[in-house]
Amino acid sequence: MSFKKFFFALIIIIIIISGMYIISGNQKETKQDLNNSDNQITKSEGSEFLMDTLIRIRIHDENSKQILEEAFNKVRFLENLLSKTNPESDISNINNNAKIKYVSVEDETYELLKEAKYFSNLTNGAFDPSIGPLVKLWGIGTEDQKIPSDEEIQKALELINYKNIIFAEDNKVMLSEDSMMIDLGAIAKGFAADYLIKYFKEENVESAFINMGGNVSVHGKKIDGSDWKVGIQDPDQSRGNIIAVVEGSDISVVTSGNYERYFTEDGIRYHHILNPETGYPAWNKIISSTIISSDSSYADALSTSLYILGVEKSFDLIKEFDHIYIVLVTEDNMIYASKELKEITTFTDDRFTVQYR
Ligand code: AMP
Ligand code: MG
Questions:
Q1: How far is the CA of 153 from the centre of ligand 2 (A)?
Q2: DSSP string, 228-245
Q3: What are 231-254's pLDDT values in tens digits?
Q4: Is 276 close to ligand 1, i.e. is its CB under 6 Å away?
Q5: Which protein residue's CA is at the shortest distance from atom 15 of ligand 1?
Q6: What is the pLDDT of residues 63-88, one digit of tens each?
Q7: Which atom of ligand 1 is nearest to the CA of 274?
């Protein structure tokens, strides 16, 4: 290809990509549109595709521009540690050295893996960051997605056991069995949101909004002093349609759903939240699970876990926490919500019957 042609092709690609950005940005914007009354000079906002998702951040601060830039640097830093596809990441390093040796990792990776193991214990293994081999086998959302054979599933299941993620002093981690694979897809975004919020606090940022796909975190109140409004995605409709609005400050709202990544075969939807007990996508009547918490790691890990556990076990599990509220949507158009949400949540779709518990 001549240089001229190459240059022309490059310009076309750039135009297409920026167009896609604007479109996908607008589609995912609902949560933000709900808050668009403010119009300050000190506001900076931006979006970037990182951690497998479009990340949008808005900051109100005198130094909002620098802080925004640093915020994206921080997400990039975390992505480089936690990505399982980047061969240089801490996670790839651990995966590639399964049963071979301990690997030294950054503080952030170590902390997150410890947290992940905590959630595995808490949920009796419904949440399992060693789910990697099963995620790879199903390939949901990739070109290789397929229904595996029972034999393949049994083989992958043998590798999945969070207890075999072992820790030693000085940030050392090892997978004790050959071919084990860590996948932090169910918690990494929550961890990243908390990481950014911590940074915003250190910088005394007054007000900020983070949207990472289905994960929203808000810091402080809106700049006009009112609460943020965060929409909960309608599991049956395209992105941007919501079933409820949650109002609050300093909260994280995280949803896991079967509509995020899936394929359909013979009328059955095979989605990306896998049950480590059966090896199949979780089918427990829930089609979306939302967690509202001050802590986004909790919200993220539990949104995935509760989806697997089903309604009864979910409410039992969260009983012991006073900072975790949930909204579970089931396939029979029921919404089960924590009673504490009554004051701060408006359900906006009368297709659903809401039951507070
Ligand atoms: P989320 O969208 O937060 O619910 O996370 C879903 C992602 O987490 C999947 O795409 C997998 O990468 C990973 N995952 C799937 N099933 C599990 C599980 N049972 N425990 C931990 N991670 C999982
Ligand atoms: Mg999650």
A1: 22
A2: EEEEEEPTTS-TT-EEEE
A3: 999 998 877 899 999 999 999 999
A4: yes
A5: 273
A6: 999 999 999 999 999 999 999 999 99
A7: 16
